[in-house]
Design a protein that fits this description.
Blueprint: E1 4-6, E2 11-18, H1 25-32, E3 38-48, E4 53-63, E5 67-76
Antiparallel strand pairs: 1-3, 2-3, 3-4, 4-5
Length: 78
Amino acid sequence: MAQFEIIDEITHIETIALNHSIRILPILQEQYGQGRWRKLKGQATVQLQNGDIRKAEIHWFEAHGIGKKKMRIKRFLD
């Protein structure tokens, strides 16, 4: 999906997978290191590359001490 910038805080955050339930866990561990990885989803206002501002559902992976990685827009909510 296109590049984007989050211009608002992420709300409605939910965990949708933990550690071994994450299909790309080996890739995350190889690229970013060992950690207690979680896949999360939430809603945020984003600005797209073309300047459009939209409300979107965002998915990302996160581990303590490593931070948010591989953020992507799953779908637009407006």
